[in-house]
């Protein structure tokens, strides 16, 4: 039912953890601050011991895409492609396969990714919609990503690619 554009607009969207993207983004923009998501803190507990496989990462840092890319970061550049996705340390190839499949259906992917960028109204905040138990759920995240020595811990852009939609979508799904 809610798989076409009209149905999506008619279907109410559940705000995960009651976070309102527009309100939070506008507040950050008016204050000149980048968003920090207190509901999914930039710390090892948000990753979980299973994904860390019991290892302590003493040099774990959380960085924003502009601090990790060799040029300006992009949310999507010249369309989303399965080639944008590079698996990291997490054993979530099932999730990455689903992402790759979604790139074959741009209309469906757009419902999840929405129009976002690192330039227009950038405030370090992004949001994604997931279809869960018969309803759309909108998840808000900040764009801080876990790294060790500037190496991504999880899904990351391919070398030379500055597209961050897969990294941020994986973070939203993890939340």
From TrEMBL:
The active site is at 93. It comes from the Eukaryota. One of its GO terms (biological process) is proteolysis. Residues 34-175 form the Calpain catalytic domain. One of its GO terms (molecular function) is calcium-dependent cysteine-type endopeptidase activity. Pfam families: Peptidase_C2. Keywords: Hydrolase, Protease, Thiol protease. PROSITE patterns: CALPAIN_CAT, THIOL_PROTEASE_CYS. Belongs to the peptidase C2 family. This is RCG62159. It comes from Rattus norvegicus. The lineage of its organism: Eukaryota, Metazoa, Chordata, Craniata, Vertebrata.
């Amino acid at each position: 039912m809610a798989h076409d554009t009209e149905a999506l607009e008619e279907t109410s969207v559940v705000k995960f953890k009651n976070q309102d993207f527009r309100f939070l983004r506008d507040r950050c923009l008016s204050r000149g601050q980048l968003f920090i998501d207190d509901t999914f803190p930039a710390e090892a507990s948000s990753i979980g011991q299973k994904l860390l496989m019991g290892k302590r990462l003493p040099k774990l840092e959380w960085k924003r895409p502009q601090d990790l890319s060799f040029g300006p970061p992009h949310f999507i550049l010249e369309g989303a492609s399965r080639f944008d996705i590079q698996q990291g340390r997490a054993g979530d190839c099932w999730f990455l396969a689903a992402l790759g499949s979604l790139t074959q259906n741009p209309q469906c992917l757009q419902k999840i990714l929405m129009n976002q960028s690192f330039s227009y109204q950038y405030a370090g905040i992004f949001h994604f919609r997931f279809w869960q138990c018969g309803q759309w759920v909108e998840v808000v995240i900040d764009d801080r990503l876990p790294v060790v020595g500037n190496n991504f811990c999880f899904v990351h852009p391919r070398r030379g690619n500055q597209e961050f939609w897969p990294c941020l979508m994986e973070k939203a799904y993890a939340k």
